[in-house]
Amino acid sequence: MSLETVRSYWLICLEIVKMASKSKHVAKGRVTGSAGRFGPRYGRFNRKMVNESEKISRAKHLCPMCDTVAVKREGTGIWVCKKCGYKYAGGAYAPQTPGLKVVLRTIETKGE
Ligand SMILES: [Zn+2]
Fold it and tell me: I need a labelling partner for 56 at 20 to 30 A (CA). Which of 77, 91, 94, 108 fits?
């Protein structure tokens, strides 16, 4: 190996390291999690929204009947408790929505 080939070899190595560190820097701003399947598409804000709603919809929630954290999403707006089997309607992606609080308050005041 001549000195010239060694030098060009090192230059290529340096370039690869530079590229790798550059791509790492880009990956820093990515929103990871369940929205990672979209890659760089749809924008950072939209991916963040999907990520948050999926985190909530996939997690277990408190059952209003037996007070155990066993409620899971069965379909759009359908929530089922895995322990007591209690099935109820909720938000599409969360068991409780801000609108539910308003409804409950209205029912309470109407009942008095
Ligand atoms: Zn339950």
Answer: 108
CATH assignment of the domain containing 74 = 2.20.25.30
Domain that holds residue 95: 59-112
**Ion ligand 1 residues within 5 Å by Cβ:** 63, 65-66, 81, 83-84, 86
Determine which helix (DSSP H) or strand (DSSP E) holds 27, and give its type and residue range.
Answer: helix 3-28
pTM for the model stands at 0.62
Tell me, yes or no, whether 10 lies in a domain.
no
Evaluate whether 79 touches 91 at the Cβ level (below 8 Å).
no
C-alpha 85 – ligand 1 centre gap (Å)? 6
